[in-house]
Amino acid sequence: MFSRLREDIACVFDRDPAARSAWEVMTCYPGLHALQVHRLSHWLWGQDLHWLARWLSHCGRWLTGVEIHPGATIGRRVFIDHGMGVVIGETAEIKDDCTLYHGVTLGGTSWNKGKRHPTLERGVVIGAGAKVLGPLTVGEGARVGSNAVVVRDVPPGATAVGIPARIIETERDQAREEKAEKMGFSAYAVSRNEDDPLAKAIHGLLDHAVDTDRRIEHLLRRLEQSGVGFDENDDGIAIADKFDPNYLSKIVD
Fold it and tell me: ∠ at Cα 61 (129, 124), nearest 5°?
């Protein structure tokens, strides 16, 4: 038991730069407390002491803001950051080295008995507010973006974003997300599968911005190779840098 506790404390230091001391982690991290309560309630559940297990789990929820059904299976070195609002269902399985942020739900979509909740393979990271619903599998090393709603399997090593979640696979998708982040605008809630003309327009703008940046970088390299220098304080460059990165956010409010 103490070796597992030391392991849990060590994983907090690995994934949270705000952690300052082992004493602080043991006394002030509700995610750690919730996992310790769950280990005991899960053992009671395995002994068919279902009411006592549920009562202890309920007490843990009241103390930490984290609701973990005693039937859920949780591996080693799992880190629940902040913790408030996390809900983990009865048949959920979380393998080793996973990270969950606040507001995450590992929920079910059926009232039938049997496997109803997700399985997270080793090293999965679930962003704040994300919902992973149903008996699906999130593959090893995969990441789920904040506020995403995942309703189908996520391949190992993939990144899932949006509502409903889509898998970022192509270089264009990755370039679009990187460009949106640099511009101070998040495209996570915009899916190319939607028929919303505004969503299509925003995707078009982001794609055009990525292509334009690529062409400008190519032209600048050619100019430098030809011996043509340029001043960063040149009026043309200054004008280009005056673009308001918050404009796209304003038009979708």
Answer: 40
Token representation of residue 48: 């068919």
Which pLDDT tens digit goes with each residue over 217-240? 888 888 888 877 666 555 555 445
pLDDT in tens, 81-133: 888 999 999 999 999 989 999 999 999 888 888 899 999 999 999 988 899 99
CA distance 145 to 174: 13
pTM value surpassing 0.70: no
- Name the packing angle between helices 50-64 and 30-46 (round to 10°): 180
Tell me which amino acid residue 55 is. W
Contacts 24+ apart (CB under 8 A), 106-112: 106/72, 106/132, 107/131, 107/132, 107/133, 107/134, 108/133, 108/134, 108/135, 109/133, 109/134, 109/151, 110/134
Peptide bond before 164: cis, by omega within 30 degrees of 0? Answer: yes
Helices (H), the chain: 2-15, 22-28, 30-46, 50-64, 171-182, 197-225, 235-240, 247-251
Cα–Cα–Cα angle for 186, 104, 154, nearest 5°?
Answer: 70
Q: Which residues pair with 168 in a beta bridge?
A: 159
* 130, 115 Cβ separation under 8 angstroms: no
Q: How far, rounded to the nearest angstrom, does the alpha carbon of residue 93 sit from its chain's CA centroid?
A: 17
Give the neighbor-by-neighbor strand order of the sheet with 73-74.
73-74, 93-94, 119-120, 137-138
Amino acid at 138: V
